[in-house]
Task: inverse folding
């Protein structure tokens, strides 16, 4: 059964297009007030107008700008409950050694730094709201290697590592941090490679929004959810690593590091 989100406030990055726009529509349809964040000002305005939300133009690689957005959301709406850190770009280079350093920093900035900055900006507001949920959009490319885009895959692996760790760190405060990892989805991100997929099944942005709803309803702190065409979204089960022989769990060193 879908959730009633009336009275809740949701902020979505990368929300002018594709998955982010679909999630905004879904959240607004459930009654949430939505804040549509994107570097594409016109696109964000159009989505916000469609759902009666608020559009804010931001480059998510700027930590101060993200903090200002959260302040603005609290000023306008009085609270923040749901944050979808979703903006992302592809690596944009072929092979490994042919490195475009400017593009490399950009991919890390948008796909990874933004998740860290967005989380840090949102947590105090979520705390003030009595708890809340952060969902970062990862990718199946964050769980398996992608020979055609190692930089993208690297950033998404890092997002997953951050979510798993921050999820544990914030769980006691009622702040859930989860990741949602879609398979290939038919959005503008994939447009340049679309023909190469032929009749390979692709997710729709709306299908990913279905998965987002499942994460919102059932996600547990630090979980990584996967979604593929034709399969219901599910929490990914990591295999775990063996500990030292004869020892239990490692000690909690959080007070010492
Ligand atoms: N489409 C896929 O196959 C696929 C698969 C797995 C994961 N993802 C992830 O899903 C997320 C959404 O991608 P999408 O497929 O909807 O693509 P999309 O290109 O339709 O949307 C991405 C949005 O992010 C915005 N954006 C890019 N850089 C930004 C910046 N610096 N500041 C603010 N906004 C910025 C873009 O303007 C765009 O609106 C991304 O994180 C992507 O990596 C996509």
Result:
């Amino acid at each position: 059964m879908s959730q009633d989100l009336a009275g809740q406030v949701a902020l979505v990055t990368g929300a002018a297009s594709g998955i982010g726009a679909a999630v905004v529509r879904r959240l607004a349809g459930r009654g949430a007030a939505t804040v549509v964040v994107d570097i594409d000002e016109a696109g964000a305005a159009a989505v916000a107008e469609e759902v009666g939300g608020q559009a804010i133009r931001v480059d998510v690689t700027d930590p101060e700008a993200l903090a200002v957005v959260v302040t603005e959301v609290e000023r306008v709406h009085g609270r923040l409950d749901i944050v979808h850190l979703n903006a992302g770009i592809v690596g944009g280079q072929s092979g490994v050694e042919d490195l475009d350093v400017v593009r490399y920093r950009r991919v890390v900035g948008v796909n990874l730094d933004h998740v860290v900055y967005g989380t840090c900006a949102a947590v105090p507001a979520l705390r003030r709201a009595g708890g809340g949920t952060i969902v970062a959009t990862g990718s199946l490319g964050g769980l398996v290697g992608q020979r055609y885009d190692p930089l993208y895959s690297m950033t998404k692996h890092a997002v997953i590592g951050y979510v798993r760790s921050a999820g544990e760190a914030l769980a006691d405060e009622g702040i859930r941090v989860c990741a949602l990892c879609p398979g290939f989805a038919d959005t503008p991100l994939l447009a340049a490679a679309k023909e190469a997929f032929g009749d390979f099944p692709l997710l729709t942005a709306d299908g990913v929004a279905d998965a987002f709803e499942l994460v919102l309803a059932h996600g547990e702190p630090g979980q990584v959810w996967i979604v593929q065409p034709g399969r219901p979204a599910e929490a990914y089960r990591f295999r775990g690593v063996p500990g030292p022989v004869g020892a239990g769990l490692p000690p909690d060193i959080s007070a010492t590091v």
Summary: The two ends are 43 Å apart (CA to CA). The mean pLDDT is 96. The CA atoms of residues 25 and 108 lie 28 Å apart.
